[in-house]
Write a structure and sequence with these properties.
about 220 residues; alpha/beta; 4-stranded antiparallel sheet; 7 helices; 10 strands; binds adenosine-5'-diphosphate; transport; ABC transporter domain-containing protein; nucleotide-binding
Length: about 220
């Protein structure tokens, strides 16, 4: 049984079908990348997995259970967006710990988990700063910290590096891959950047006009004519 299964998933906005019957299986611990041109439906697909968008038809299974109507906070998923949406008036530590405080996690436990996330992301020296006092790369690391502190079984990334400059992007790719190795959770990562997809993915899903065009390991896809 795969951890994540999309079975003939479709999405209609008004009368237009945006996602046209998508089947995807993702294994536990896998780093899967969905790549495709702008407008092909990547974000919509990710938002349906997260529960931020209704599924028009088809089944979404997580751990073998159909979760089409399970609320976002009960899916064990964290999502990192392109725009970081940090809370400007909170420190880095408060931003990272906020989701846990909403869940009424014990204060000492929050402190410990924020500390661990900050160490993984090399943010320890910045915990008392506000988002305005951080660089773009540092802000993106805080956004990732907010996701991993919840210890989700699945992390969704929606073009998380596209606002960063080229050098930082390459550095953050390596950091995300290291984090995935250490953390071991399943990742679905959306990008329009083929190089990013080839570098990071264990499995690549090529989406085109709302349909899966190809699925495979990066090298296998690369070798095709
Ligand atoms: P991608 O992430 O691949 O760039 P999106 O999933 O964001 O693609 O969008 C796919 C298509 O769906 C686009 O044509 C977009 O305009 C359309 N779309 C996305 N969200 C909505 C919405 N809420 N209402 C109507 N159309 C939408
Ligand atoms: P205010 O300062 O008016 O109280 P909030 O604390 O609600 O505003 O939000 C501050 C910032 O955090 C805003 O830029 C908003 O977009 C962002 N934000 C609000 N809610 C969330 C959320 N659930 N997840 C991520 N970002 C959020």
């Amino acid at each position: 049984m795969s951890q994540i299964e999309l079975i003939n998933i479709k999405k209609q906005f008004e009368n237009t079908e945006i996602v046209k019957g998508v089947d995807i299986h993702i294994e536990k611990g896998e780093f899967a990348v969905i790549v495709g041109p702008s407008g092909c439906g990547k974000s919509t697909l990710l938002r349906m997995i997260a529960g931020l968008e209704d599924i028009s038809s088809g089944e979404l299974k997580i751990g073998g259970q159909v979760v089409n109507h399970v609320s976002p906070d009960k899916r064990g998923i964290a999502m990192v967006f392109q725009s970081y949406a940090l809370y400007p008036h909170m420190t880095v530590a408060e931003n990272i710990g906020f989701a846990l405080s909403l869940q009424k996690v014990d204060k000492q436990e929050i402190k410990q988990r924020v500390k661990e996330a900050a160490e993984m992301l090399e943010l320890t020296a910045l915990l008392k700063r506000k988002p305005a006092e951080l660089s773009g790369g540092q802000r993106q690391r805080v956004a990732i910290g907010r996701a991993i502190v919840k210890r989700p079984q699945l992390i969704l990334f929606d073009e998380p590096l596209s606002n960063l400059d080229a050098k930082l992007r390459v550095q953050m790719r390596a950091e995300l891959m290291r984090l995935h190795r250490e953390f071991g959770s399943t990742v679905i990562y959306v990008t329009h950047d083929q190089v990013e997809a080839m570098t990071m993915a264990q499995k690549i899903i090529v989406l085109n006009q709302g349909k899966v065009a190809q699925v495979g390991k990066p090298m296998a896809l690369y070798k095709q004519p």
